[in-house]
Amino acid sequence: MRALRVAWLAATLGAGATAACVDRATSPGTCPSFCPSGAIDVVDAVLGTSIARDSAFRGYVFPDHAVAMTAADVRGVVDSRAILRTSALVSGLVLNTGDTTTSPLVGADSMKLTLTITRRDTATHNLTLKLYRLPVTIDSTTTFADVESAFADTLRAVNVDALLAKPGGVDSATGDQAAIDTTSKFLKVTLKLDSRLVDTLYVPGDSGKLGIGVRVGADAPTSVAFCTRENGCGATVAWFVKVDSIKGTDTTLIHKQLAAVTLFDNYVFYPPTPPLDSTLAVGGAPSARSILRVALPRAIRDSSQIIRATLILVPAVPVQGAPSDSFVVEAHTVLADFGAKSPLFFDATRTDTTFVRVGATDTVRIEVTNLLQFWTSDSTRPEVMMLRSQGEGGHPSEIRFYPSAAAAYRPALRITYARRFPFGEP
Amino acid sequence: MIRARGGLLVATCMVSPALTGGAMLTAGAMPLAAQDSQFGIRGLGTPGRFETVRARSTGGAFAPFDPMSPLVEASLADLPQLTATAMGGTSYRAAEAAGATTSLRASRFPVMGLAGPVFGHLVLGGGFTTYLDRTWDVTLRDSMLLRGTMQPYSDELTSDGGVADLRLAAALRVGSRFALGAAVHVLSGSTRETAGRTFDDTAYHAIKQSDEVRYDGVGVSGSALLDLLPALRLTVFARSDNRLRARLGDVVTTQTDLPNTVGGGLRWAPSPSVRLAGALTRRTWATAGAGAFNTLSWSAGLEVGSGFSPLRLGARGGQLPFGAGAAAPTELGLAAGTGRAFARGRALVDVGLEHLERKGGGLSERVWTFLLGLTVRP
Question: I need a labelling partner for A94 at 20 to 30 A (CA). Which of A211, A303, B63, B74 fits?
Fold first, then answer.
């Protein structure tokens, strides 16, 4: 009898426990009769006058500090050329272990110059790189006009598309080669300069320093971006030098390989970037940024949830350049509003971008939802947006938008937001 | 797993039998929740039942005479010793609207009580009961015009919690055939409410808002119990609740009038092993505002068998206070149950099974509820 009662109790509690493990409360609403009276209220509004006190500043990243240098050939629009200077070679080499003297360099057999192309226009064909010898005195103050005359005699030229089409990307006749890095997708082009050319390039008085200019050409207007030393993949030079062994009467020349790196790289272009005016400039070289101050209505900032925000900008002039010079404009928020010197908030989740196409005059729309949500989540953040181009200073292309002073075309914000849900109402 | 949400105790999945059993024994330490219904989404919620498993297994007919059912205080006067009770219920609900049927399940622990004689003929009791259950989770699919394009979206509106009735009751046997009772009720609770919307177009970020709504109110009740004949007992009861205030933080968002309740019951025991009872209750829920209706509920039940294993049967009917349309939704139910005493009657385990059918405003619900109750007399 006692066992029976224990079994009854266990069965009852077990059934209860099993039944308790079953919560499922979600059901399709039968509205409006059997739904909560409150509803999510979504509002879409264009804030036409919320952006004010906007201005543009130039000089953030100079071309010689950019992560890319653009060489472009777009007749009548832009002519851009890469220039670089390599490091000096050592004056002598220790040929034997234990020697206390070095053997002097007496000349060079050949050299290889490797350039890394990070962006090119694959729609154009017969991309050609042409090398020119430039004075080793080139520096950040060098202008297009300063070196234009040096771009008269071509040292070497290579058809990159033809080179890529060869087996393994190697031209066995010239020693040139081209290959695409499978990881970075960068195109590495190596040009070999034989002894005939090297004799003119290797100047003992310059300790082997080289000034080199690069032009590009193709069947159609084209533009390429070379990687720079600032990006860790600047041009490199491999010298094959001759060293005097200096062993008594032995004057045998020893052949050695020496590496040189880029000490300076830059690009010069024509026409130069026009000076800033009342428009909001973004991009160019040196790079320009535009600052936009936003005044969000308190009702939106304090008690609404922004679900989409679009910054609307009207270009004042079309972007100039080759089609492949189209670039990305980034909208950042700032840590503090110090005008032109406002430090940017670098966070991928707080950065919104859009693509700006060369030649287009369409209204540019940047989805800035992340920025506005950031502002509404922390009321101490300044409601300031800074526009800059991606890869700042690495291309001469620039876009200019109408400022808030141009009433008909001023920047605007289109915001879609949800009002506070009426919790607590039956 | 048992977790407290919004001041209510709710059972969720992954329950271990041992834990659940233990939780049911101790659940009375917290405010409790009851079964819910689609009919309560639009209004204040789904009213709880002031009934233990024993009373509910008889369709609620024995609630006015059951000392541990928190409906009629005067019946406490018959309590011979300190007694504690708690109950749990699991409901399987099928809601049918516009030709579509949705299956829903929920577990609740709606009643806990403790009562005992203090001195003389005075008996005091207290406990928690679900007053309004406001737990639901509604999903919607719709679209809206945004920036010139119809944007499909999915909404999910949820509420988790409810309002508990904290009762302190006293009963006094005035004579051998007459007893009086009274109680004060503190209504308290909260709901965790969320509103979310997800657009198909991910250019629109998801909306997610939530808040905690707190509720409060008070009520008083009184009752009398009269033995008309040795086998015939009459009870009448009345209750008045003032208003339910909903607060967000310190701000009162709504204030809703609560109903007055009057009712009575009659119990006839033709033999020591057979008891019949019927009850009638009216509540003025229409004061709660638009979409609310006054309700009249009836119940009739039978308990057969004396000692430790009675058999219980019952039926109930009436109206629900909230619903769409011009008339109140209706409810009809059948219930059955039994119980078993252990430890020489010091522990009682009651089980019951209830079937309800609710209709109104184009919606119908069929609910099966398994009830389990535990009563301890230390």
Answer: A211
Tell me the C-alpha distance between A364 and A312, whole Å. Answer: 6
Mean residue pLDDT across chain A? 87
Interface contact A373, partner B, CB < 8 A: yes
Are residues B210 and B188 in contact, defined by beta-carbon separation less than 8 angstroms? no
Residue B221's identity, in one-letter code, is S
Q: Count Cβ atoms below 10 Å from residue B179 Cβ, excluding itself.
A: 26
Q: A13 and B92: CB-CB below 8 Å? A: no
* Interface with B, mutate which of A1, A6, A8, A13 (most B CBs under 10 A): A13
According to DSSP, the residues that pair with B191 across neighbouring strands are B161, B213
Question: pTM to 2 decimals?
Answer: 0.79
Low-confidence ranges of chain B (pLDDT < 70): 1-36, 307-308
The answer to whether B77 touches B173, Cβ cutoff 8 Å, is yes
The pLDDT value recorded for residue A8 is: 61
Residue in chain A closest to B289 (alpha carbons) equals A426
In this structure, how many other beta carbons lie within 10 angstroms of the beta carbon of residue B150? 8
Q: With a cut of 60, say whether residue A50 has pLDDT above it.
A: yes
The answer to ipTM > 0.90 is no
Using one digit for the tens of pLDDT, what is the confidence trace for A274-319?
999 999 999 999 999 999 999 999 889 888 999 999 999 999 998 8
A contacts of B103 (beta carbons < 8 Å): 24
Residues 157-216 of A with CB under 8 A from B: none
Cβ within 8 Å of residue A348, ≥6 positions away: none
Contact between B363 and A421 using a beta-carbon 8 Å cutoff = no
Cβ-contact A210, A200 below 8 angstroms? no
CA atoms of B106 and B13, how far apart (whole Å): 10
Contacts of B202 (CB under 8 A, 6+ apart): none
Find out whether B215 and B187 touch, Cβ atoms under 8 Å.
yes
In the numeric block, which tokens belong to residue A124? Answer: 């154009």
Give the CATH number of domain B46-134+159-194+209-376. 2.40.160.60
Say whether pLDDT at A420 is over 50. Answer: yes
Judged by CB atoms within 8 Å, which residues 258-297 of B form the interface with A?
288-289
Please tell me if residue B149 touches chain A, with a CB cutoff of 8 Å: no
Phi-psi region of A192 (alpha: psi -120 to 50; beta: other; left: phi over 0): beta
Q: From A16, which residue of chain B is nearest by alpha-carbon distance?
A: B372
Q: Given this model, what pLDDT does residue A38 score?
A: 84
Which DSSP state fits A200?
H
Q: Where are the domains of chain B?
A: 46-134+159-194+209-376
